Amino acid sequence: MKHSSRESINHDLLSEISKTESKSSYDNGDCLHVGVFYTPIPWAQFAIEQFDLFTYWMQGATVFDPTAGEGHLIEALIEYGLNKGLSLQQLPIHNLYANEICPKIHNKAIIKFKSKYGISFEDRFTCADVFDLYGKRYDIVFGNPPWITYASLPDEYKIKVRPYFVKYGLVKKNNSVLLGNSRIDLAALVVKKVIFDLLNDDGLAVFFLPLSIFTGYSANQGFRDYMVGDRHFALIKIFDCTEANVFSGVNTKYCIASFRCNQKPIFPIPYFYYKNGQWHETLVRPLLHDDDPLVDINMYRPIEPLRVKKYNKPRSGINTCGANHVFIFDNLIQESEEVVIVSNKLLKNIRLPYRFVYPLVIDENLKIDDEDDINEPKRWILIPYHSNGDIITYDEMQKYPLLFTYLSSFESLLRSRKGTMIRTAIMRGNWWALLGVGPYAFAPYKVFWKSYAGAKMHVAILKGNWQANQALHAYIPALDINEAKRIAQFLRQPEVEAYLKSYNTENTKNWAQPGKIERLLKYQ
Fold first, then answer.
1. What distance separates the 2 farthest-apart alpha carbons in the chain?
2. Nearest to 458 by CA among 379, 383, 364, 331
3. What is the pTM of this model?
4. What single string gives the DSSP state of each residue in 381-394?
């Protein structure tokens, strides 16, 4: 990394910026609350300078703020010109446009521009939801859209915007927003909407945005195809402003990013970050795939994907759906070849058929370096399934009286478990079902690693029917030892651990989940 030598980064301006406070949300009676952080005018002028917006405007470009609030970004352009010694009459005010969803804030902005500058803005400052805007296009879009995830939106607004997530290519179908993509930023949706419907060909867009749109794992992956409809748009440059404290009291990381319409992105791109009172410059590019999060090219070495079979898909562990005490045990005594006695903190001396009880991985089991080392189980799990992955039927279960009597004693509890997938199994009559069970769960070899709250990539090969515990551990099934060794050798590379750390998710629930590892594989 190097310190930026760009003279255009004005440190006197930064000094002035640090004295400016920002407002942090709507608080205007009946206005829609959709996560707004008003942009301090000095920081808006910083963006104007870095992306040369004033020059474009003076050369005849139209400028539009689609989520204007009180119009700080438009006001910043005017003030920038006045500070250069130009008069209002010399500025192309007629090429400034804005929009704000909230009538009260819109009216306040109209009054401000009239009283402060003598500008009648009513014909160019609309009051509408940005998703209702079509028709007119602009040369430059300069905005700070709402920073809020879909999951946090008011219910009535979710209903309105849900179809737009599909229309503008952030998800494949409506229910995807309700499932794993509920953390998509509304700001990402606004950017795609604006670029597709409101930006001229070859137009420039500059936005204040949550940094997670570019560095997060999966929620905003649909944004990073850098395409909406038949329009490509190139990410040009990013200023990571988090440490510069643009928005006081905001915990999320954020940035200023620029895009050029009708261009495909060319990586790496310049990335500026603020540290110890100075701006520094580096280059970033997607991790492996084009839609991957961006990483510093100085901190990441590319990994050649491992070619595997579909059978080797990374998997999460068995999920009891809230019934751990029914299925998981801390002690096991072998009574005979067919019967074991198991216990946990709540249940003691339960006799069960040995064929349905399997060793359950804990962290200690992953600390071995050689698959031939003796690895003693410390926990066990009951899996009422056949080794082909099929659940045993009710009639079959009755052939094992110990199993039938035990599970029947918990029938009411097991029937009451929550969750869409487990409810589907229960509605089919399989109230003893588990999630995460298939033929892969009974592979002769598994390559395990810790997937939850980890910081090191400990990889172990375990022979036999060892099982992973829900999201705590993950594994890749293998059909023979050579296949398992090849996979383990790949996962033990330092580059794999570096890849995981590039997400900044050490010691979190998202440390090394199967989806991240799968992106390192190529199915043949």
1. 96
2. 364
3. 0.71
4. EE--B-TTSPBPPH
